[in-house]
Design goal:
Layout (H helix, E strand, L loop, with lengths): L1 H5 L4 E4 L9 H10 L6 E5 L1 H10 L4 H12 L18 H11 L11 E7 L5 E4 L7 H8 L9 E3 L2 E5 L15 E5 L17 H27 L3 E5 L14 H6 L7
Parallel strand pairs: 1-2, 1-7, 2-3, 7-8
Antiparallel strand pairs: 3-4, 3-6, 5-6
Helix pairs in contact: 2-4, 5-6
Length: 260
């Protein structure tokens, strides 16, 4: 795989998955070690946040240091008392302003595409260098999980998380070779049924497993229909919840050593 990537231009596609997306950093570490630089980066949700950092020239170690800030929920979480979501985006927006400043989508070292969903009509929106908007606004769109994070308005349209339409953005690649990292792939869900003492625990596990299965099958279908050469990496994220930001060290390690 390494030689294939070394000899060809490739797109780096990073999936969404909340805290599970921290495992993208392990893959980035190995890419840096091999001095492999993608020709473009495509990200959804957490993959979009990580991808945007890489696109403006940040190294994996620097991204990791910033991810640690998310491990303390009080650094970015502010509960909303109105609207459609549980979390107010003010603190998160300030973090992105610190990282990206006023940079716009065309002001990156590596071409960047971020996937979001138009919440009015359900259509996919891919923010790219063609869009004259700040990177932070595109990120606030791609990561806005409905009901959890506030939806974000850009140019009069209301957007939410890209996982609703394409969690693994292989369809958006302009290059023939894709390195796709799917943290909600086949290795993200338990093959056994929940068997906890408390029924409520079983219900919550079934709900999360169902969401992971839905997203997995969505991505599987996209991959099957693609005409591109896709090198797929699936960190073994089973056993970790999408909100386990406090386990950033362990989750990062899940992405190490997959690049063979």
């Amino acid at each position: 795989m390494i030689e294939t990537l070394r000899n060809n231009d490739f797109s780096l596609v990073l999936s969404g998955g909340g805290a599970l997306g921290i495992s993208h950093l392990g893959v980035l570490h190995d890419l840096e070690k091999e001095t492999l630089i993608p020709g473009e980066i495509i990200g959804t949700s957490m993959g979009g946040i990580v991808g945007a950092c890489v696109a403006i020239g940040m190294k994996e170690a620097e991204i990791y240091d910033n991810i640690k800030k998310f491990s303390n929920l009080f650094n970015w979480m502010k509960f909303s008392l109105s609207g459609n979501a549980m979390i107010d985006n003010q603190k998160i927006a300030r973090i992105f302003e610190t990282l990206f400043g006023t940079r716009k989508m065309h002001e990156t070292d590596i071409p960047l595409k971020l996937i979001a969903t138009n919440l009015r009509n359900g259509h996919k929106r891919v923010f790219s260098a063609k869009d004259n908007i700040p990177i932070k606004d595109a990120i606030l769109c791609t990561m806005a999980i409905p009901g959890i994070f506030e939806e974000h308005v850009v140019e009069g349209e209301t957007y939410g998380d890209g996982f609703l339409c394409e969690n693994l953005g292989v369809n958006e690649s302009d290059l023939d070779l894709i390195l796709a990292v799917d943290v909600l792939g086949e290795r993200s869900f338990d093959k056994e049924m929940p068997d906890n003492f408390f029924k409520t625990a079983n219900m919550m596990e079934m709900f999360e497993k169902s969401v992971r299965l839905l997203i997995y099958n969505q991505s599987k279908s996209h991959i099957a229909c693609s005409q591109k050469d896709i090198l797929l990496l699936e960190p073994e994220t089973v056993g970790y919840k999408t909100f386990y930001f406090h386990k950033y060290e362990a989750i990062r390690k899940l992405g190490l050593g997959l690049l063979q």
